[in-house]
Amino acid sequence: MITDLKTLIDTCKQELHDREYHAHHADILIKEWDAVLQWFSHRGVSEFGQDIGYKYCDEEIGSHIIVKGMSSRQKKRLRAVRMLLSYQQAGDFEFRTPRVERTYDGETGQLILQFFQHERMIGRSEKTIACRQIALYHFNQYLTGHSLGFPDLDIDAIEGFFKAMDYSLSARHTCANHLRQLFHYLYDYGYTHTDYALFVLKDQYRDQCKIPTTYTEDEISRVLSAVERSSAIGKRDYLILLLAAEYGWRSGDIVSFRFSQIDWDSNRISFRQDKTDVPVEYPLLSSVGNAIIDYLKHGRPKSDALRSSF
Fold first, then answer.
1. What is the DSSP string of 93-157?
2. Any idea what DSSP says for residue 302?
3. I need a surface site. Which of 48, 117, 120, 176 has the fewest CB within 10 A?
4. What is the mean pLDDT of the chain?
């Protein structure tokens, strides 16, 4: 863990460059980081950590989480400091600035925090960890509120938690997965003598899901052919659907797709997956290439600004 503030800031500046942050956004962050460094220097402090980072936010910004009425300027300043903290603690920038401060109390809370650290060490994406944090925060609140520890868990206790949360079927299904992963970790690393994932009952989410999980080739062809491609919006929508159909990209991958990621000479598309942050490479199919060219020539809105995305 980097504790020297100047070293941490220099490392984060390099990270911005490596990730090809937009120059305008990078300049804002760097300006805020330099202000933090000056604040620390005036106080003769060089060591950076969560406690003093939060103190800076509370004194200079008014809060270390987003609160109602906070200005855009304050949010940007807060974002900059929390990026330093998250990079120091996890080696990655925080996905978004929280509006709620979650604390994980008791022995169960400490083990849950260790689980989050383990997830980062094995390369789990920050988006996935953020979802786990929400679900397991509520679970830990339920445990502490009912004076329960992990050894007290059984089917009734876990079902009691789900009943208290009054989840929808899909939300219960997602939370159950987070619980199973936590319980597997606790058992595999010897924190519990039983894998309590056995007590998380299976649900009927897959059986009752009304949205089909897969489509036939004929169905995909009919969806694509239904797009009105004579308009600019239609050309854009057709390209988006084609990326999903041909490559199986998630919505986050499509939103973050940049034309600069295309190697036209080698007919390749290279980027990092939005969910896993794993670098991947795809062949530039003729259907996709032609749709991109059609959109660029006849569909993309004209602008004086230099853009590399949709």
1. --SS--SS-----HHHHHHHHHHHHHHHHTT--HHHHHHHHHHHHHHHHHHHHTT--GGG--HHH
2. P
3. 117
4. 87
